[in-house]
Write a structure and sequence with these properties.
Length: 207
Amino acid sequence: MDEAGIRDRIRRELSPERFRHTEGVVCTAERLALRHGADPEKARLAAWIHDVAREWEWARLVDTARRFQVESAFFDVPAVLHGPVAAGLAKEWFGVDDEDIRNAIRYHTSGRVGMTRLEMVLCLADAIEPGRRYPGVDRLRTLAEENLERALAESFDATLAYLIARRAPIFELTVRARNHLWRRVLGADGSGASFAPHETKDWEERE
């Protein structure tokens, strides 16, 4: 199915508000991909599909996730389950076989250790598209133009702070992704020396 066909199907599946969010993610993902060396066509495709199941009723989401044999950990945090379901639908409905695209969709809410550039682009685009309004988002948008990994690490920090303040469940993949990104960022600019070996070990044990 070509991009126009995918866009039309996505429009039928989503509310007008969610579709506007998706359009914002598509534009942002394409721009970030061009700026940071990811494939812009793959970024647009992943962005169109990423929230296709976001507004489904819980029973339908769970039934479909079980049919796609989604890992059990995703069921413990309802807010992330639509990602792996959308990744399954990417192949079933739209014929997307590209694993990088499907993984970008699968982990767009949670993140994971060892994210590809495309995965980081979609995850960050979802957090900073023009329709997003929350404290600090303008700083993330500016930072995203300069440093993809640092912007995503700070975005994870903001997400975790939001969830902790509301005593909401936190998906362990997000904590691992956040820790991994900060190690890369701090190591890359030299300030990683602030992490003593025993502190790093302690982090790993907590994960």
